[in-house]
Records
---
Amino acid sequence: MGVEARKPPLQFALKLRRALGGKAGWNGVAVQLVFGTILAWMAYEIISNARTNLETQHIAAGFGFLQNSASFDVNQTLIPYSGSDTYFRVFLVGVLNTLLVSVVGIFFATVIGFVVALCRLSPNWLVSRVGGLYVEAIRNLPLLFQILFWYLAVLAALPAPRQSISIFNTVFLNNRGVIVPSPLAQPGFVPFLVVLTLGIVASLALHSYARRALFAEGRAIRIWPYVLTLIIGLPLVTTLVFGMPITFEWPQLKGFNFAGGARIIPEFVALTVGLSTYTAAFIAEIVRAGILSVHKGQMEAGSSLGLSRGATLRLIVVPQAMRVIVPPLTNQYLNLTKNSSLAVAIGYPDLVSVFAGTSLSQTGQAIEIIAMTMGVYLLTSLITSAVMSIYGWRLNRSLGA
Amino acid sequence: MSDLAASSYVRQDLVAERPAPVKTTGFLGFVRTRLLNSPTNILLTILGLLLVWYTVIPTVKFLLVDAVWSGKDRTACLAENVGRPVGACWPFIQAKFTQLFYGFYPEAERWRVNVTFALGTVLLLPLLIPRLPGKGLNAGLFFFAFPAVAFFLLHGGGITGFGVSWVAGLLQLFADSISGAGEGLVGLSKNSVAGPLLWAVGSAIVQVGTLLHWVIFPLTWLRDQMLGAGLGPWPDVLITAVVVSVGLFLLGGGARAGSRPLLVSLATFAGIAVVIKLMELDHGGLPIVDTRLWGGLLVTLVIAITGIVASLPIGIALALGRRSTIPLIRFFSITYIEFWRGVPLITVLFFATYMLPLFLPGNFTVDGLMRALIGVSLFTGAYQAENLRGGLAAVPRGQGEAASALGLSWWKTTSLIVLPQALRHVIPAIVNSFISLFKDTSLVSIVALFDLLGSLRASFADPVWTSPSTAFTGFAFIGIIYFIFCFGMSRYSLFVERRLNAHRRN
């Protein structure tokens, strides 16, 4: 008589144990229970303490304060705002100002970062040393230090409006900010914009068509004359038909101040300069590492196929480098957005400054205001990381296929 | 034969000497190949030279050539008094030097700061040199003993109790909180639909609290007896030493494991007793210096070092939690890490300054520096966890599996096999996060603490020193300090990284 095979253990119980307690099984369940109890106890302590403390300070909990009138002014707003508006509008003003400085900062940081990276990669000894010096100096000084340096030392040392430093008589630098010509939309603005958008969309479609033709049938189509016509020619024709889309109002010195033109507040200038130069140093290192990560053989293979140096860079090196560059680059963009909260140190009216700063000290609603402020940043970074994981997934798929 | 000689060509004279190839070595060769080898490069070199000319020369001129080196107030740094363009105003730094380094720390007590810095340096330097022995003892002293000693040195004050009293106090708080929660539930039950249920749960919790009070009664009684004896913390130290040593001895396997753990534990307590005696902690210790008086580099270093020391255990716990298979623990770790990494440090500092006091019991006050320290530690802990996760992932799976095969428990596998290897891998990352923490400490000036940058900003407000070059001088000076610290640490991190990867180099 043979030995009978033992029955396999019950799969359902195993799975349940695994789901409830992980590899540790029932021990894991016990650990979770203890941990959960501690968390619940801490949550209870926090809530009950907060309730008692708020009662003693006579602060009503809840988001009702958002409907109250804020009664303070903000020196830069993208949407109409006056002191009689609500705290919720202050919140919106802050979010928009944060977005504005982030977008402008990201643009300049990218441009400076790529230029510095190219400098560092340059075969020219002096230029690569200058690039290296820039990166080392900027990365080893605190960002707040740099922003305060621009704000308290450089911008404060600029002359008064009457003695403004003028650049070609269009842009004026003085200690009250930067005066630039302000654009005024003319009747031809809307058609111009419509035609320009159409041109860009058509060019993109053309580009993707040409790519497909190249990959599917090996047919190289020259598209740049069409693109040039679509993006520059058509809007030019529209301008001739409808008149100039934009005219500029030029700033002029009248008395002690400027009439006309738009004033960019010095806080914005200092913050943008500080953020973009600081982040640029990190971007430069990312770009350099990305380009160096492409094997030398790729470049050599490109030239042995008879491609020019520019074509090799454009078609072979850059696409491979971008794969390495994009994820950390996005991270730097996110860092820049988070760092824009340093605005509070120099009084640029960003979200933290007007909402977590002024509004908080006026209302005392610490929990609600800080939760909302943190929520905005958290949402931004969660969305970014979601987009980045989709990017990574697509990349993996395209590499695997 | 002459026919043959005539038809073949034989060169009659020497070929003229060719010019030597262009030199590619030496200074001239370097200039030729790296600076002037093509029209584009010549242009770039000229641009680079112009850039250097317009940035480096004025900087040197400002800092050294045109600088004013002595003076009593702003008049010494005004161009009309000096009669030439004025550069850096160094007397301003001389006047504000103590403020930039110590803040308003009382002059008579400044030796304490110096002693702390000296002690820290003496403990830290051997830790950073890989070749020196005794890393375990050294790390223990730096990460555990030094923070405690530094606290009593910098802040002052003494102790009345020790281990037993602290445990008793903590347990009592815990029991009180449980009883309070139960009573709260019972109170709620009066006007609620689920009244009876709430009442039952509340009463049960109250019972648990009462039971806990009874259980810890011997401890609290012991504490009260010791406090009443008038011998200071000494009986408490003695009892704690005996209990902990015996406990370790028995848990460690008794006599089988040898007497080493027992000796180590006794030596540790002897060391603690010596420190208590030396610093007279039993007689109230040094005079208390309020943290509001601290400032300058002192605050910067205190926050950076406390942040990194406190964030390590948080980071280790979270990194292990994130790898755990237990759902709740993994979920909690991921949420914690992603939350703190998703928000800017400023909002964390605002949270610690304005929200944290609301979360603590009303009779429990935390001073401003402590709040910032808590915020910074929670924040850095999340980043440290990500660093450590990388280190843990770098340890081959086989290491943990081999340890399990030897019969080691999870705790032993982790603490003896996996973590030591992981920690070695992440030293460069920890140094890098220390650099960014060191830079980020400047943010505390926004929540009314005076670190190096905050002290500088405060010193600009002094009308005695208002002059056009004051701001530039101040920024130049503390910029140099920040640069020396950060640059030095980044070089060190590179050195360690190269050492760790030495086997990979070809």
Note: The mean pLDDT of chain A is 85.
---
Amino acid sequence: MISSKICLVGAFAVGKTSLIKQFVESIFDEKYHTTIGVKIDKKMVSLEENEVQLIIWDIEGVDIFTDLKPSYLRGADGLLFVIDGTRPQTVEAVDAICQMVDKHIPGSQKLLLINKCDLREEWSLDKNQIDHLDFDKERIFETSAKSGENVERAFRTLAYEILNSKHKSVSKDSK
Amino acid sequence: MLDEKPLERPTSESSESNSGKDLAKLRSLLIGDDYETVLKSQIEQTEAERVSGVLAEAFHLRNSRDGSLSKELSPVIENAIDTSIKDNPSRITNVIFPIMGPAVRKAVASALADMMRSLNHLLQQSLTAQAIVWRIKAWRLGVPYGQYVLLQTLEYRVEQVFFIHRETGLLIESASAAGIEYQDPDLVSSMLTAINDFVSDSFNSDGDAISTIQFSDLSIVIESGPHAVLAFAVRGILDSAITNELGQKLEVLHAEFSKQLESFNGDLSQFEGCKRLLEGSLVEKSKQKKKSKPWFAITAVSAATLLIGYSSYLSWHKHQYIEYFVMHLEKQPGLQIIHSQLTDDEFQITFLRSPLAQSVAAIRQNFSYPGLTLQLNPKVALIESPEYFLAPIASKYGVTLNWSSVDEQPKLIVNGQLTQIQIEKLKQDPIVTSVFKDVDTQNVEILTPLSIAQQSRDRFNALVLKVNSTSIFFESASVTMTPGSAQELNQTINDIREALSLQQTSGLSVLQIGITGYADYQGANLNNMKLSEERAKLIADNLAANQIDSDLVISWGVGNKGLESIESANHRRVDLKIVVKDLSGESK
């Protein structure tokens, strides 16, 4: 069994905790609970012949009062950057975090989740902003923690990418 | 030579200017217009300005290559901080105050809590009976009391162990003691890592790690190694021996799994055998068990005893009351209890009642016992039907009863055996007097109690009969009694004496004791006569010797006369006969 640490990062109130709740327990709660520090959850994901145990770190949202503590990211194999489609300023927060991540954990797998796609008509994102973040198209997911749309798929993709990268590094080591 | 020099100079000048031109040409060919710009900036910018432009990148480059920069910078930074503090201490104070304030408060609070706990512990330990015992034991062992207490109270149990990858916070393996239920160990280990990260971030103590988390009597001891962390949940009092032991455990694990830890990629299957090692650390040390009295059991037993005692008292009291009530009721004229039954909450009486007797309400009024109701079943006994009363009276006195009406008045007719006293009692029985106007005891056979006189008489008569039927036997042709008869004679003498003693009380008296001697047919008649006389005389002498009045005794020999019907073996004999005189009448 492979155990893997992944982190959800992003601005406050983008839906990180809700995404995890939806993924782990298939529950959505309309109430907003702000996360302080870190919450940790876990879920087993089966991929083909492999079992990956995801230890999911739900890290408090970034705002003007709270910086992201890089030590929380240490040792993470994968990161989910979460932005709120209805709030363009959340993209900027992710942009800042991206730079920090590149510096601290360069080898990690990264996906971008544009959350709240159940409110797509209220989205006000600039395409250039997203492009600026420099994610491959297949690494961007439009999700909804409320409806559950793409949530499972995003997490599974991350797990798959992590597994792939591990296999690669193992084969590289053996060479 | 001199001519040559001026000639050469232009040559050299021209060649110099030529090479300069070439160089400029080459420069313009290679670099183009940028040359001017570069030249311009070289001239316009100072050295410092140029360096400042690339400083950050240079730092970044060098830092990513090796750590020499930090090494070089650290004395500079230290000096800088030094200078800064000297110049303006309040600035640094202001910066670190938000961190130091809570930290100091927490430290002080923790120290105070520790002090309170130890004080409390000390008080507990010094004021109990156990403390006194311990003091004596410590004194006997020659050990300081504090040390002895420490030895006695040492108690801990390692309840759970987490082996955590340091970098990722992922749980490699965990083990927990039997019966301990915890949160998901994966989450616990990640959370411990997060807490550690949080603390080291918040307090800028990068590289340091939390070593203990204290929570009530549960301590989480965290031992950090280069690649892994070992966290122990220990309940009880920690001592240095256990923390040392746990630290060693981490070293063992590091040595065993060094390769796997170095290249850890989340694959947990590489750590086989790790659990066994962890389980080895689930040690515990128990303190001596307190032999406390089983207060609960004692309380329960005494409560039960009290309850049983109280309920038996209640039951006894109830029965006493009922007994008294029944006794009182029986004395009432015109009432006869036929049947009574006592249950838990009810007392039932079925009784006969004559119309003139105490009313049912009055009976009920006399009865009052908490929790007990009185159920009265009166059977009204009418005068016209006195037969209701016959059965209870008959069973009470053991007689058969009948009744008849004489002049319209009921009359009880009694049959059977009763003493005079019983007859009187029957006649005065309240039930009898209330129902019957007259009692007929004509047919009753009156039993008289045996009088002392009668008893004496009977005894006297029995003794006389016994003596009169006694014979004393003798050896052939001699006046020597057979051994059995000598015995018999003693008994007979005692009997005669008893009979004599009973003369006064029985009204009977011994008139004479006749002793007749016999002899068998052997030998001459004359001799036989003589022998029989001697035998009778012997017995008479014996009686006299035993204080029996000789005036009463007459003895004679009759030879062998009158022995025809007696078998020959019994011919040599003496017979006794007591003649009785009844003082009330004639002699028998």
Note: The first helix of chain B runs from residue 4 to 30.
